[in-house]
Amino acid sequence: MAHVPLRPLGSPADSDLDAASRARRAEALAQREDELNARRAKVADGWGAKYRERVHAKGKLTTRERLARLADEGSELFEVGTFVNDGVSFGELSSPAAGVVTAFTRIEGRWTMVIANDNTVASGSWWPQTPEKIERAQEMALRLGLPVVYLVDCSGLFLPEQARSFPGRTGAGHIFKKNAELSARGVPQIAGVFGDCIAGGGYMPIISDRVVMTEQAYMVIAGAALIKGAKSQQLSSLDIGGPEVHVHQSGCADLRVPDDETALETIREEIRRLPSSGAAYHRHGADPGAPQFDPSELGTLLPTDHRMTYSIEQVVARLVDRSLFWELLPDRGREIMVGVGRVNGLYVGFAANRQGLIDDPEQRAGQKPAGILYREGIAKLSAFRRACEDDGIPLVWLQDVSGFDIGVEAERLGLLGYGSSLIYANSTGQTPMFTVLLRKASGAGYYAMAGMPYEPVVQLSTTLTRLAVMEGRTLAIAAFNTKLDDAFEIAVEDPEERARIEKGMQATEARIEADMDPYRAASQMDTDEIVRLEELRPWMELFAEASYQSSGFRRTKNPRIWSLHDLAALTEAHQ
C-alpha cells in the first residue's frame, strides 16, 4: 500500500535568527499590518454612523450586522475584495469595498459565499467594479461548488457612473449570466431581499433556488419614481413589487417574512437542508492538528526588505498540520519546493519559491540565486501540477519570484518551451488552485506561479507584496539606458541635462514603486485580498475545507493510488 511519507519540517524561530533580529522584523511588519487593520476598519465603516442610523431608523439591520447574525457563532468571515475601489473618488463620493461585501462564511457548518449589498453606501448601489467584484465571488463559488447566499438591498446602478458599470463584457448584466451558470452547475443559490431591489438588483435574486422577502422588500424592474414619470401613476414601490405581489401573485419569490432577523434565520434553515461537508470523509481518518510551530512567528521569519532571504521550509512548517510535509523531487530544481501536507487533516499540495543561493550542478562548484525559475524548476512545477490535477489534490502556490532565468544559456535550454508547458498545465486544470503572493511577484514568474491571469480560485497578497514586471530602479535604468554607462551611472557632462535625467529616473522609480503597492493591486482587482501573515494558516484551512466540502463535485483519488507516488518512485530509484 502506498504511504504518504509526511516528515517533520522546520525548526523554532530562534534557531534561525537572534532575538534582536526577530524583534526588528516584527516591528517593521507591525507598522504595515497596523495600517492594514486601520484601512479595513475604514472600509467596514461604510459611509459612517449617520448612514447606519438611517438604516436602523427603518427598522432594518446594516449589511455587516446581517452577516454577523448569518454566520455560525464564533466563526470568522473571510472577506474578498475588501479594497476594491480603494482610493478611487467619484466626484466627492467614495465607494468603500465597491458598495458590496463578499465573504466566505461558515453557515450551519457549511462554507458558503455570501454576497451582500452594503446598505450604508448609497443604499447598496452598484458602482464601477461592483459587478466585477460580485462576479468574482460567484466564480469562486462556482469553482468550489459552494452555496451562494445573496443579501439583496440594492437601489440599482449608481447612475452618474452608469457608463463604467453597465455596458461592458463584465458589466452589471454579467452577474445574471453567472447566476445562470451556477444554476446550470447545480450550485445552490439562496436570496434574501431586505429592501430596495431595483432594475438589475431586481434580477439578481430571481434565478436563485429560494427567494425570501421581508415586509420592507420589493423587487421591480422600475421603481415608483420612474413609473410616476413615465406613466403618471401614483404608486409605491411596495405596491408595484412587494411581497404581496411576488410571493402571492407572480411567484417570483418563495417566502414572506416579517423582518431581517426572521429572513436570516430562514436562510440558515435552508442551508441546513443542504448536504453537509465531505471534508471529514476525505481526511481518511486523520485528525486535524495545528502546526507544531506557531503561525504567528511568520512575521519574524519573512524580512520586509525583499532583497533579504529566508527559509521557505520555515514558512510551510507554520502552515501545515503538525509541521509534517512530504517534499517531492527534492534534489531536482532546487529553486522550487513542491510537496504535500495536511491542513485541518486534509491533503493540500504546495509549490513555493526558495530564496538565497542554491548549487548549480551545471557549473562545477558554482551557485546561482533562487527566487528565479530555471529549467528543472519549471519542469518540476509542471509535473507536480499535473500530478495534483490527476490526483484531485488542491494546490497552494507560495510566490516570492523575481522572474525567469534569462540569457543565451536559458534560451539554448528551451525555457520558453518549458514555460509554455507550465502555462498549459495551469490553464487547463480543474482542481482548485490558490495563490499567495508572499513578497515579490515579478515578471513572467508571476504568471508561471499561477498568478491572477491563470485564474486561481483566490489570490491573496500580504502587506509585503510587490506586484510588477520589474522593480522601480531596474525600470528606471531600462528607460534611461541610452544615457547611462556600463555601471548604470549617468554618462552626460552637461549639468542641466544630467539633473534632468536624474530627476526623470527618480520620478520613474517613485511611480513604479507606487504602482507595486498591494493596495493599488487590490483596488483594481489585480489581487483578491490583502492579509496579515498570521492569517495565512486560517486561510489555508478555508482553502482545504472548501475544496473538499462538495462531495462528488470533482474527482478526488484516495492517497493509495496517487500519481505523486509514481513521481517519487522514479526519482528515488536513482538515489
CA radius of gyration: 26 Å
CATH topology label of the largest domain = 2-enoyl-CoA Hydratase, Chain A, domain 1
N-to-C span: 21 Å
What's the total helix number? 22
At the fourth level of CATH, the homologous superfamily of the largest domain is 2-enoyl-CoA Hydratase, Chain A, domain 1
CATH classification class of the largest domain: Alpha Beta
State the share of residues found in helices, binned by percent. Answer: 25-40%
Instruction: Based on the coordinates given, report the CATH architecture of the largest domain.
Output: Alpha-Beta Complex
Tell me, what's the shape?
Answer: globular
Counting copies of identical and different chains, the oligomeric state is single chain
The mean pLDDT is 90
Structural class: alpha/beta
Structure in words:
The protein is an alpha/beta fold. It folds into three domains: 230 residues, 2-enoyl-CoA Hydratase, Chain A, domain 1 (Alpha-Beta Complex), CATH 3.90.226.10; 234 residues, Alpha-Beta Complex (2-enoyl-CoA Hydratase, Chain A, domain 1); 44 residues, no CATH class. Strands 1, 11, 12, 13, 17, 19, 20, 21 and 22 form a nine-stranded mixed β-sheet that branches. A seven-stranded mixed β-sheet has the order 2-5-6-7-8-9-10, sandwiched between helices. Helix 18 packs across helix 19. It starts with 6 loop residues before the first strand and ends with a helix. The model has no long low-confidence stretch (mean pLDDT 90).
